[in-house]
Amino acid sequence: MIDVETSNRSGMSVETDAAVELAQRVLVTEGIGDGELGIAFVAPDEIRALKREHLGEDEATDVLSFPLDGRDDLPEGTPRALGDVVLCPQVVGSQWREPLVHGLLHLLGYDHGDEMEARELVHATQ
Q1: What pLDDT shows up at residue 122?
Q2: In angstroms, what CA-CA distances link 75 with 8, 38, 47?
Q3: How far is it, in rounded angstroms, from Cα 44 to Cα 82?
């Protein structure tokens, strides 16, 4: 089972249950049957600070990913810590599903390019 912890620091109402359901579905489709995942919804100033600190770019963005274990082999009995996806509802608006999928795929080791775009299309049609 994939345990998803959510937090909402955005100051907006967000569909956390739908985000958890989508994340679990995407991860199972990608072959991840168990693990721990964090999804945080944050305000523009927080995501801007995160992007500046981690990527050196001083701008708000829709989604950031902070991967941990990804698809790495782990010792038997060690829980898989996938990492965190951080979304900014004020930037993504009602179109949060695509950035969430994008962020999840980054946690699993996909990088921008044809393979990631193909995986995003798979999940968009589910």
Answers
A1: 72
A2: 33, 22, 33
A3: 24
Strands 35-42 and 63-67: unpaired
B/e letters for 41-80, b = 16+ CB within 10 Å, e = fewer, are bbbbebbbebbeeeeeeeebbbbbbbbebbeeeeeeeeeb
Q: Which two tokens stand for residue 31?
A: 């072959």
Are the C-beta atoms of 80 and 35 separated by less than 8 Å?
A: yes
Q: Take residue 101 and report the two structure tokens written for it.
A: 């999928």
CA distance linking residue 26 with residue 35, whole number of Å: 13
Q: Which two tokens stand for residue 106?
A: 């980054």
Helix (H) or strand (E) segment spanning residue 90: helix 89-92
pLDDT for 25-77, tens place per residue? Answer: 999 999 888 889 999 999 999 999 999 999 999 999 999 999 988 777 888 87
